[in-house]
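URGENT: need a sanity check before tomorrow's submission.

F., can you look over the 3-methyladenine DNA glycosylase record below? I want to be sure the sequence and structure line up before it goes out.
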Amino acid sequence: MSVERQRCAWGESGNALMQQYHDEEWGRPSHDSRHLFELLSLEIMQAGLSWQTVLNKRSAFKAAFADFDYRQVQQMLPQIPVLLQNTQIIRNRLKVTAIINNAKAIAKLADKGEDFDHYIWAFVNNQPIQHHITNHAEVPNTTDLAKRMSKQMKKDGFSFTGPVVVYSFMQAAGLVNDHETSCFVYQLLVK
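Structure tokens as predicted:
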């Protein structure tokens, strides 16, 4: 007999990938630089599209972008024409170019001795921000912190990192906990 878990409203879409992403990944603090780069890249790809579309193409993105190894991705500028022919991914030149550019920005940080994980988590003083959302409609699409983070990221060479993309990335990577308070994941994250 399985116990039914209460999830955020969006995690109850009936789509297995969405549910798994909600249950196992979204909002859980990530400190793996490769994973953080992947989440940022996926949020960039999602801009203007549904998250389900991005999740359905996630394995293709991983294959196309060297499993989000920023050292390899930063070298992919000459491959843009090939990537734009890849029907398995979202073929948007601005988004593809931004992912490659962001890999270069992460490499530049690493070359100065700063890990992407440390760079990102410094924006929240290495502590997830615990929001207390009772209804997913209360979740903002951006915040003042996301605006400051976006501005700094752009200054540091990142692209396609506007405040809305940055806030979505913060949610995905667990910098903020925007799970609904009735959600089982929220309960795990506030303990």
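My own read: Strands lie at 129-130, 176-177. Residues 30-190 form a domain with the Endonuclease III; domain 1 fold (CATH 1.10.340.30). If you see anything odd, call me.
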